[in-house]
Design goal:
7-stranded mixed β-sheet; Elongation Factor Tu (Ef-tu), domain 3; homotrimer; elongated; 7-stranded mixed β-barrel; 5 helices; Rossmann fold; about 290 residues; alpha+beta
Amino acid sequence: MQGARYDTVSFLTDYGTSDEFVGVVKSVIRDLAPHATVIDLTHEIAPFDVRAGSLALARSIGYVASGVVLAVVDPGVATHRRAVAIEVAGGAGVLVGPDNGLLAPAVALAGGAERAVELTNAEYHLAAPGATFAGRDVFAPAAAHLCNGVDLYELGEPVDPGALLPGTIPLPRDEGDELITEVLWVDRFGNAQLNVGPDDLPATWGTDLQIRVSDPTDLTGSTVRRATRATSFAELAGGAIGLVVDSYGMYAIAFDQRSAADELGVAAGDQVVLTDLGDPAPVETPVRFGRQ
Amino acid sequence: MQGARYDTVSFLTDYGTSDEFVGVVKSVIRDLAPHATVIDLTHEIAPFDVRAGSLALARSIGYVASGVVLAVVDPGVATHRRAVAIEVAGGAGVLVGPDNGLLAPAVALAGGAERAVELTNAEYHLAAPGATFAGRDVFAPAAAHLCNGVDLYELGEPVDPGALLPGTIPLPRDEGDELITEVLWVDRFGNAQLNVGPDDLPATWGTDLQIRVSDPTDLTGSTVRRATRATSFAELAGGAIGLVVDSYGMYAIAFDQRSAADELGVAAGDQVVLTDLGDPAPVETPVRFGRQ
Amino acid sequence: MQGARYDTVSFLTDYGTSDEFVGVVKSVIRDLAPHATVIDLTHEIAPFDVRAGSLALARSIGYVASGVVLAVVDPGVATHRRAVAIEVAGGAGVLVGPDNGLLAPAVALAGGAERAVELTNAEYHLAAPGATFAGRDVFAPAAAHLCNGVDLYELGEPVDPGALLPGTIPLPRDEGDELITEVLWVDRFGNAQLNVGPDDLPATWGTDLQIRVSDPTDLTGSTVRRATRATSFAELAGGAIGLVVDSYGMYAIAFDQRSAADELGVAAGDQVVLTDLGDPAPVETPVRFGRQ
């Protein structure tokens, strides 16, 4: 009765690729909805790191093809978190995963939840030989059946979209002359994305900023560096430290072809304090008096 | 003359993904059978670990879409092991790979080998510029031609299905009050699957078991812990150690959101001894006499 | 107006798979050219290692399906390197990527550049919210539009194919009795491919060669071993060291089921000196005189 409705499943997990988990989930989708193509976003989210997963999904959501987004980072699989499917953008997309905040930032960026269900209808689950493997037994079949045209409300009980668990992306804090920011993400190349975009900096601040990174395990010290604001990586020649507006529109601490994160010793979740240093001074010739 | 027969190739190897091996094999399949979709199960089997590969394939086989299964873990590529294709389930599936035990457990789970050939027909091989890269030059073309409708017996000499090399999955051993088991698999989350299912434990055993892990490099000690049998991870709240019936129907040693394998120091192949501890005692208030 | 022209994009980068970069690029292609299938060659080229990327691409190019090859290893993204598309083989293939030598060996193996453009036409780019992510915003749309039948010359300004940056694959050097070679690649199994094929060795040399590996960090020593030339890994029984003609037609230092690279301490880029040792001597029974 139903025609194929979606033909793309965009897929993100913390499953890694050493085990066959990702392959088995894709096999289930292939079996139930052979017309659908699965696009892997990433499966290397650190185990149980819901925040990192939600951020990767938020960075991706503007680019995924319309269809189903299947995301599983699920430390609460053993507890009573709900398995949900959330329709967005007039039905152009459905996000499927645990209701633990993982999907929330992406849902918000896609315009907000319009309809939502808890995946309670066991007719659309696979029977497990033992404990439920939610990705394989609940989420993958839901994604496949949605691709096949099954209506969202067939998959389970309606859920009030306003009652879905929100995500928790930290906002920067203004403390006098300082802006307290946080590293959201360190990418493979060592760029450290902050939770600050160009509009979040005071308009009076100049081109040069001080960045201060405190090592929480070393109370005696912190790393302080001068960084120059840049609108592209192309301006970072010659080993300068930059606060570059990255390809997602956020400031990232970046070094020219080296890992900023390694040099500064920062990781996702670390605090970075920004202070205005005004505009760069004209180059001065140092003049020295007396003995050196 | 032949129509497309299969449109899915499920693919498992020990090639890793750092080199282009997996991509080249897929390119060969794409070139010869463009209608076929390749589903990666995993390529991170440890190099030459036939047992681990055969177990991952056995865990997957119940879920793969009908079609071709291409599996290559091949320490004997340099020796005279045979390259084979094995038909199962009335032709619903064909497993392609080396005849070294890798395919055997999956073949058995799929109902047993019905027809088999050695891939000796060089017309269906690629010519290599040097040494044969079996995945690229022999197995991938075989998989692709099978997808295109080439009959199994065109690919080479028939092989007696009963003469295929069997797999070697260890069985648990009953030794008086003890059950000697083995860790089959440690997954990304640290759950340690044993070669024991619920039907393998004596019916008289209670809910609580003792698990004893011997460190073969340390003759002086072994780790002994109390574990509770559980039918799902959901029962494992509060840091308890569980013997959970995992999503494949086998017992796995599992900790709540921590790696059981790390905590106990176990890896695939290690021995674990189980002993009955009866049912949990009622909670007692300890009463102590005398000096502490 | 245009019909689908290519339906395969073969994809190689240094993006890794921990971040969602690969998935986002694929999402862009999926969105713009839903009929195209993306085949991952590898994404684990070391960050910014153009040479390693160009070699992996060269090893793959003979096997990729006709269509678009999208390759991005791009340390110069911040500088004024050009983004290009290069047509080869009478239009059977187009290589898309940075003009930094990455594509050059593959282009040469595919018969040479026939038409080339710089990807300057912004109508075929995505608008970035910040800095340009070239893979997502420039290269992926170019690949997708080529698949959709857009003509190469619509994507930007024509470039003289002779002005494209060449690759830099080192040639072996003949120094008297010695042949100075270089390790091109160490694969997952530890085989160390040299920049020497069977035709590069003097015809007078025998079956046995001396291989000398100098440790550049240890001036006092070098590792010297006897190796036997072999035309396949099958001849390497019993722990012998072989110089095997590998599956790409080049000599590789190989050990039977062990990592030659680990045993000899060599990595890509290291120098290996080959010297003739003639043919193996007949087996001699050692005779010893006097006290040992």
